């Protein structure tokens, strides 16, 4: 009897372990094939089998506290808001989106997820609705998304800036793969999408300074100072990018996604002559990785470099990706914006903002 019970429980454990392994591994996604890599070699920023920044990036100044940093993702964050103190949200559902689209508006859903309506087109950026990890019980959200995945309105396209888990979510891609929606993303990320069932003819991959026309808008991938990867062995196998979105009325949005501060902001500002709205990260900064995320003060400086009119701080309020309290970044960004006389757009998660 004992032997039968042992075998039964061992089988249960093995089955559970197998299910967990599948759950995790499918979320890694596929990597570019040899034919794609051969095309990447035509880019000056791809060599040695990897993509590279055009400015040096210090990934970790010190590995002394690395294990401590990683272990915190497996427990409740000390930096999370206490009950009743978290980010305020405006709840949304399908009825929140009219059939007639706004001429120029956005809804910030938290972190880097946004819904834009621009000159008749509607699109999302980096839609993530769950936790920011392939392991189900790690990197939890501070607050639920103001919009359920099931209530995503009809979209023309989705912009995926890069393949990190807080920007590219398996569940959302699977939800959208059978919809009539295009995916605009950086080189190599299309392999992830195709592996999850998105048809190749609905994927547009862009290298830096490459453009595509979608739904009457021009989307251009520009540089960012960051990195990529979803596994321990695929660092920088795919590209990371910021995006410029332009309409026929000469309105321009800069979606920065993830980037450390660098000279590229000033060069992009000079190239385009300014932006009506800049969406720039303010969170996940730390002295130990100074180049791949911006400190809030650097984010305001980047806005000025871009010659932006209105400044929207993003990439905050949802996940603990560094070692600072959940609301420290937005406080610092507001203080820096006021000091630099920058017009900061202050909105709640889920609140619609109509732009002039």
Descriptive key words:
356 residues; Metallo-beta-lactamase, Chain A; seven-stranded mixed sheet; 8 helices; 24% helix
Write the layout of secondary structure elements.
Elements: H1 2-28, H2 34-40, E1 46-47, E2 50-51, H3 66-71, E3 104-110, E4 113-118, E5 121-125, E6 157-160, H4 170-176, E7 182-186, H5 189-195, E8 203-206, E9 210-214, E10 217-222, E11 242-246, E12 252-255, H6 264-272, E13 275-281, H7 296-305, E14 308-314, H8 328-339, E15 343-344, E16 352-354
Parallel strand pairs: 5-6, 6-7, 7-8, 12-13, 13-14, 14-15
Antiparallel strand pairs: 1-2, 3-4, 3-16, 4-5, 9-10, 10-11, 11-12
Helix pairs in contact: 6-7, 7-8
Q: What's this entry about, in short?
A:
This protein is α/β, with parallel strands linked by helices.
User: What would you call the shape?
Assistant: globular
Q: Which oligomeric state applies? A: single chain
Task: Quickly count the domains.
Answer: 1
Write down how many β-strands occur, each being a DSSP E stretch of 2 or more residues.
16
CATH architecture: 4-Layer Sandwich
CATH class: Alpha Beta
Helix content: 10-25%
**Succession of helices and strands:** HHEEHEEEEHEHEEEEEHEHEHEE
Characterization of this structure:
There is one protein chain. The protein is α/β, with parallel strands linked by helices and 356 residues long. It has one domain: Metallo-beta-lactamase, Chain A (4-Layer Sandwich). It contains eight helices and 16 strands. The chain has helices at residues 2-28, 34-40, 66-71, 170-176, 189-195, 264-272, 296-305, 328-339, and strands spanning 46-47, 50-51, 104-110, 113-118, 121-125, 157-160, 182-186, 203-206, 210-214, 217-222, 242-246, 252-255, 275-281, 308-314, 343-344, 352-354. The strands form three sheets. It has a seven-stranded mixed sheet with strand order 8-7-6-5-4-3-16, with helices on one face. Helix 6 packs parallel to helix 7 (296-305). It is globular, with a radius of gyration of 21 Å. Mean pLDDT is 91; it is low at 2-19.
